[in-house]
Records
---
Amino acid sequence: MRTQVAIIGAGPAGLMLGRLLDLAGVDNLILERKSADYVLGRIRAGVLEQGAVDLMDRAQVGQRLHAEGLVHDGTVLSFDGDDLRIDFTRLVGRQVTVYGQTEVTRDLMEARPDRTIYEAEDVDLHDFDGSPWVSWVKDGVTHRLDCDFIAGCDGYHGVSRASVPAAAIKTFERIYPFGWLGLLVDRPPVSQELIYARHQRGFALCSQRSLTRSRYYVQVGTDDKVEDWSDDRFWDELRRRLNEETAAAMQTGPSIEKSIAQLRSFVAEPLRFGRLFLAGDAAHIVPPTGAKGLNLAMSDVDMLAEALIGFYRDGTSTGLDGYSARALTRIWKAERFSWWMTGLLHDFPDDGDFGRRMQRAEFDYLAGSLAAQQSLAENYTGLPQ
Ligand code: APR
Ligand code: PHB
C-alpha cells in the first residue's frame, strides 16, 4: 500500500490534518489504535478560540458548531469569592466558542467515512530519515504502508515521539503537585460564562458543554483516586470553593462521567525528524487552566497542512523546513499562558503564605488594570499564528 502522508492517530489533530489534506487533494491514510467509539467516548475540553472556529469553517465542518456552539463574550475569575469579569469582546474584540472536543471529533469523523484504519495494533514507524513506511497489525495480519511523510498525531503516549532517537530530541517538562477531578452532569450550567475560582481549599472551574450539560472541576491532590470522590463529596467541595450566590444556584445531579487528570506542562523540540513531523499532544501538553490543548493541536495541524500542501502544489520544502520553528513559537506562548493561569489560580502546597499573597496581589492587579485584563483576554481568545 502507498499514500502521500501517513497520519498516526485519529484525535482532533490527526482528523483535522487528514481533512485539510483531503480538501487539497493530498492522499493520506490515518492509523488509529482504538475504535471510533472509544475515541468519541473520551471526555476532553471544550473551549474553541476564534482561530479554531475559523479552521473548522475552512475544513467545511463548521455547520453544527455554529448551530450548537455557545459563543462566550467573557469569563469570570473569582478569588476568595471576589469576582472579576474579563470582557473579551470589549478588551480585544474577540470571543471563544464552547463546543466539546468530542463534537469536533465527531464532525471530522463524519466528513471522513473511510481511509481511517481503526484498531490498528502495534503501529511502528520505519526509515523516516529516508524512505518512510509504517507497519501495523489488524486482525492478526501485518500490513505495510509506504509514504512520503509521516505525521505523528498520536498524543502524549503515542508511538511517534517514542520512535525518535533520544539524542535527536529534547523535552521540557513541569509536573504540578495536583490534579483536576472533573465531573460531567446533565444539568444546566450554574453560570452563563465559565468561572475560574481560586479558593483557600484549592481551584475550582465551572464549565459547560451545552445549555443542559455542565462540566465542573476541583483541584485534588496527586494521590486522590476517583473512587475516593462520591458525587456528594464532589458537589460539597465544589460549592465550598465558590461564592455563596453561585453555590446556592448550583444544580447538582448524578455524574455521567468522573475522572482525574494530572496537570503537566511538556514540550518536545524539534517537531521534525527527517520525514516525520509531530503535532498536537504528541508534541506538547499544557495544563488545562488556559483551555489551550485542543486549540494548539488545531493550530499545529493548520501550519503542518499548509507546509505539506505547499510541498505538493509548488514543489517547495520551505514550509516543511520552517514548520518546527514556526509552530514552537506559538506553542511556547500558549505554554506560558497556561502555566501563568495555573500559577495564579491553584493552591501550591509548598508555596506557603508568601505565595498566596503573590496570587492575591496578581488578582488585585488584574482587577485594577485594563492592560493586564487585555493581556489575559488576548491570550485566552487566542494569539495569531
Ligand atoms: N498508534 C495509533 N494511534 C495511537 C497510538 C498508536 N501507538 N497511540 C495513541 N494513538 C491515538 C490515540 O488513541 C488517540 O485517538 O492517537 C490519538 C491522539 O489523540 P489525542 O490524544 O486526542 O491528541 P490530539 O489529536 O493531539 O489532540 C489534542 O486532546 O488531550 C487532548 O487536551 C488535549 O485537547 C487536546 C487534544
Ligand atoms: C472544560 O470544559 O472541560 C474546560 C473548560 C475550560 C478549561 C478547561 C476545561 O480551561
Note: The CA atoms of residues 300 and 327 lie 6 Å apart.
---
Amino acid sequence: MKIIRTPREMQQAAQALRRAGKTIGFVPTMGFLHEGHLSLIRIARERADVLVASIFVNPTQFGPGEDLDAYPRDFERDERLCCEEGVDLLFYPTPETMYLEGHSTWVEEEALSGMLCGAARPVHFRGVCTVVTKLLNLVLPDFMVLGEKDAQQLRVLRRMVRNLNIPVDVVSGPTVREADGLAMSSRNKYLSPEERKEAICLFQGLGKAKEQFSAGERSADVLTASVRDVIEKTSGTIDYIEVVDDENLQRIKVLEKPALIALAVKFSGVRLIDNAVLGK
Ligand code: AMP
C-alpha cells in the first residue's frame, strides 16, 4: 500500500491508472476507522482493480463550536487496517494542501441539504459537497462507496453527482452495528460507559417504529412519537426525529411510498445519528 500525501501526487497517480485502463474504486473517510468503514472498503475491493481510500478530517464541514479539533484521529492504526484490507493507495492530505490560501469556490446542493442534519449544521453539506467534489477530481474513481448510516449525506451526494454530471457511480453499503445495535461511529468512543449503554435507544426507537410500520401504522406522527418515547427515557437530548420522503427528504404526514425515518440525539457533546428506510 502506498500513502499519498499531496493532491497533486494523487491526481497524477489517478491519471496514470486511468490511462492504463484500470478501474478505480474509492472510499472517502475521516479516519478513526471501524468495521463500518471496513465494510465499505470490502465492497469496493470486490469491484476495483485499484482501491483508493482517503483519510481527511475536512474542516469545512464542521461549523463553529463543533468537534473539529476533538475529532478522533489515529493514523497509524488506520494505515494498518487499510493495508490489511487490501487498499492500494491511501490518500492522506493535510488541510493546508487541500484548501490553499484564498480558497473561495464552494459546491452547494440546495434541495436536500437544509433539513434533518442540515438544519442544525448549516455549513455541513456545503463542506461535504465541496470536499467530495475535490476528492473525486483528485482520485478520478469509476465508483465510490458511501455508507447508508449517513442517509442524508448519501442522498445529497447522489444528487450532486447527478446534477453536475460527475462521471462516478455511487454505491452504498448497509449500516454496520455493534452487537447491541448501536450504529458504529468514530464518535462512539466519546460516550461515557453510562451513555454508551443508553445510546442503543436510537436503534431501539427505530426498531419500534419499524414494527409499528409492519403492523400497518402509516402516521408519521405516531411513528415519531413512539421513537421519542424510547429516547426520552434516557439522558439523550433529541435534535430531531423525522419521517421524510425517501427521495426528496420532504416531511410527510402519511407514509404512502418509501420513507426515511431519521434521528439525531446528543449525549453530552456527542451527536449520534441513525435511520431506517420504511416501505422499500
Ligand atoms: P466518516 O469517516 O464518518 O466520514 O464516514 C466515512 C464513510 O463511512 C461514510 O460513507 C459513512 O456513511 C460510512 N460509515 C460510517 N459509519 C458507518 C457504519 N456504521 N456502517 C456503514 N458505513 C458507515
Note: The radius of gyration is 19 Å.
---
Amino acid sequence: MIKISPSILSSDFAKLGADIESIAAADYVHFDVMDGVFVPNISIGLPVLSSVRKATDMVLDVHLMITKPHKYVGQFCDAGADIVVFHLEADEPQDVFAALEEIRAKGKKAGLALKPKTPAEAVRPYLHLCDMVLVMTVEPGFGGQSFMADMMDKVTAVRKMISEYGYDCDVEVDGGINPDTAKVCVAAGANVLVAGSDVFKAPDRAKRIGELRG
Ligand code: DX5
Ligand code: ZN
C-alpha cells in the first residue's frame, strides 16, 4: 500500500495545528529537522516535535538532517517520533549501528536516508536494522526543488536488496514529488512518498493527497 507523508516544512508554522488537521487524509506527517551544518539550512527541532505530538495522533515520520544523529535519536523518540530516519553520511559506522539499535529499543521504527550521491550499496550493512530506507530525490536542505529522475535506479536497487533478504522495510522518496513523479517512484519500487510544496500549495489538500496516492 502506498503511504503519503506530507512534509510540514512547507506548512505555515504560525498555524501548524490547523495545517496538520488539513492533511488528515495522509498516512504520516513528515517532520524535517535541519541543523545548518549537515545541510545549509535550519528548520525545526525537539520542542516543536513535542507540541506536534500533543496535537495529533498521526504517525510522525521524523527526517533528521543533522550531524552526529546518534547523540539525538533517543531524544527524538522521547519527544514523540514514531519513525526516526537519519542520514548514514552523518555519522561513523559504529554510531549508525548504535543509533538504529537505540531507536528500535525504544519501540520506534528506524530508517536510514541516502543523499543523491550515496549509492544503494551503502545501506546494505545496516539493512537488517532498518524499517525504512529513504532515497532522497533532491539534495537535502530545502523544499520546492526539482525531482531527480536519475535516483530511480537507486530506488529499484534498494527495493531489490530488501526483497532478496526478505526484510519488511519501506522505501521512501523525498523531494520534488507530485502526482506525476509519484507514479515514477512507485513504479521504481517506492511505497512511502513525501510531498511538501505539492500538498501545501494545493487548494484542496485532501484531494491532492488522493491524487498522489494514485
Ligand atoms: C528536503 C526535505 C523534504 C522537503 C520536500 O530536504 O527533506 O522533506 O520538505 O519538499 P518538496 O516536496 O517541496 O520537494
Ligand atoms: Zn524530508
Note: The chain has one domain: 3-213.
